[in-house]
Structure formats: C-alpha cells, structure tokens
Amino acid sequence: IDRTNWYWGKAKINVFMLSICYEGIAIPIFWRLLKKAGSTTGKEQIELLSRFINTFGKESIQGILGDREFPNKALIAWLVA
C-alpha cells in the first residue's frame, strides 16, 4: 500500500493505492483519489484493504508492505482481528 502526490499542470493529485507484487514488480489493482492533501487515515486504509479482501479473500494475503504512513493503531487492530 502506498500514497503519493502528483501534479497534472496546476492540479494536485493525491492517490492512495494497493498493489500486488509479482516477480519484483508492484502492479496497482485498487486505488482511491483523495480529495485532500496529506496522509491517509486508518479508516481509508481499512476501506482499501477491504476491497482487496472482498475480491480475493483474506487467505490470499501473504504479507502487507507499507511505509511510515501506515503504522496506524486502527489498521493494526483491524488486521489482527
């Protein structure tokens, strides 16, 4: 999971995405354009991961990798529940 900011001309684009890793390449499969600047919330993170689980099942997850934006108490509690 990752979030990044892009600029398209003067328009700011804040995109949060979930990718699968295949042979060393991350392939985005779910994403959400955020209508705000800055980091995602635990609720937004859970919503994106829920989309994956609803499509592929929880048992298909072998691991989750995220950077410093994602050590979130709500997300961790939800993942271990």
Structure description:
With 81 residues, the protein is α+β, with helices and mostly antiparallel strands. Helices cover 28% and strands 36% of the residues. The protein has two helices and three strands, in the order βββαα. β1 and β2 (11-22) form a beta hairpin. α1 (42-56) packs parallel to α2 (73-80). The radius of gyration is 13 Å and the shape is globular.
How would you summarize what this structure contains?
The protein has two helices and three strands. The chain is an alpha+beta fold. Keywords: Membrane, Transmembrane, Transmembrane helix.
Mean pLDDT value: 92
Oligomer: single chain
How would the global form be characterised?
A: globular
Rg measurement, Å: 13 Å
Count of DSSP helices?
2
Number of strands: 3
Give start-end ranges of low-pLDDT stretches.
none
What structural category arises from helix and sheet content? alpha+beta
- Written as H for each helix and E for each strand, in order along the chain, the element string is EEEHH
The main β sheet shows up as:
3 strands, antiparallel
The helix content is: 25-40%
Largest sheet, order of strands side by side?
1-2-3
| Cα-to-Cα separation, first versus last residue | 19 Å
Strand content: 35-45%
Number of domains: 1
Name the features.
81 residues; alpha+beta; three-stranded antiparallel beta sheet; 3 strands; 36% strand
Write the layout of secondary structure elements.
Blueprint: E1 2-8, E2 11-22, E3 25-34, H1 42-56, H2 73-80
Antiparallel strand pairs: 1-2, 2-3
Helix pairs in contact: 1-2
